[in-house]
Q: What sequence folds into this?
């Protein structure tokens, strides 16, 4: 059988004619695309580029502020911790760390830390921060950081720390005042903030006294008697949804209006004479008339709070 090509069989040369030739290009330099360029930038360089763009174009700055994720307590305190670490690393090796020489060495990073505190603290204050628990937790961490600021021999150099205490005390005062408006400030009393603020005031040498006095006004009405766990809703002399907890039980006031009798006694309310096999003490409650109280079980105190 012959293997020579027939008229109907294409030859090899015909296949070669149909193979497209690859165009030969010369090597040429070109810049990286924007996504590849951004991949090469570290966080600090990227912040610098973004800040320059925002400075040149205010409209972009406003869009970045609206688009950026809201800083959390953890991220904010982490940034402040970086400033604090830089401050510690700047101290001279050996020698007196309270001297004027040491102060001059660390003055710039110290001011950077104080400036950062001055910016972050208002961010977590009402009305910008609507959750009182977030405000209190951030102030707790920020105050701890102020405690760790260095002390100096010179009175003039110590003014930085004194001013920081003054500002953080004002922030605590505002936070406590706003928190006390929700559920009568029960969060302050029963989440340990009374003890935390007292501890901070002691560590600050009494410089948070203003905040401590505000806290006393916020939780002082609770006294040391039964724990109030409900929220009073009062209109005139009528009250409802007002509960106290005694020995694990919830005592709930009967609802109703004043009857105008002589039994009405403003300024105090007798909780009853013998509930749960134990005598209950009289508690002072302004503008609440004498009522009859009955014991009712509640699943938990927290479930009755509405902040």
A:
């Amino acid at each position: 059988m012959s293997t020579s090509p027939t008229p109907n069989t294409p030859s090899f040369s015909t296949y070669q004619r149909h193979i497209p030739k690859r165009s030969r290009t010369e090597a040429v330099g070109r810049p990286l695309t924007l996504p590849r360029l951004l991949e090469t930038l570290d966080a600090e360089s990227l912040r610098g580029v973004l800040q320059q763009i925002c400075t040149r174009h205010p409209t972009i700055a406003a869009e970045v502020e609206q688009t950026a994720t809201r800083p959390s307590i953890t991220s904010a305190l982490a940034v402040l911790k970086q400033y604090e670490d830089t401050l510690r690393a700047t101290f001279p090796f050996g020698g007196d760390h309270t001297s004027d020489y040491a102060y001059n060495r660390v003055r710039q990073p110290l001011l950077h830390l104080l400036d950062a505190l001055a910016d972050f603290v208002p961010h977590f204050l009402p009305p910008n921060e609507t959750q009182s628990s977030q405000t209190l937790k951030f102030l707790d961490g920020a105050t701890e950081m102020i405690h760790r600021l260095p002390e100096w021999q010179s009175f003039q150099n110590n003014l930085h720390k004194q001013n920081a205490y003054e500002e953080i005390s004002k922030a605590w005062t505002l936070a406590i005042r706003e928190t006390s408006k929700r559920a009568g400030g029960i969060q302050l009393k029963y989440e340990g903030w009374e003890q935390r603020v007292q501890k901070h005031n002691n560590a600050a040498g009494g410089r948070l006294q203003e905040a401590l006095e505000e806290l006393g006004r916020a939780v002082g009405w609770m006294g040391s008697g039964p724990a109030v766990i409900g929220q009073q809703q009062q209109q005139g002399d009528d009250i409802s949804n007002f509960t106290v907890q005694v020995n694990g039980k919830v005592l709930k006031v009967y609802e109703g209006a004043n009857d105008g009798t002589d039994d009405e006694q403003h300024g105090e309310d007798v909780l009853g004479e013998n509930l749960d096999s134990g005598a209950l003490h009289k508690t002072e409650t302004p503008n609440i008339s004498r009522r009859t109280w009955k014991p009712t079980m509640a699943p938990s105190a927290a479930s009755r709070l509405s902040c």
The two ends are 99 Å apart (CA to CA). The first helix runs from residue 12 to 18.
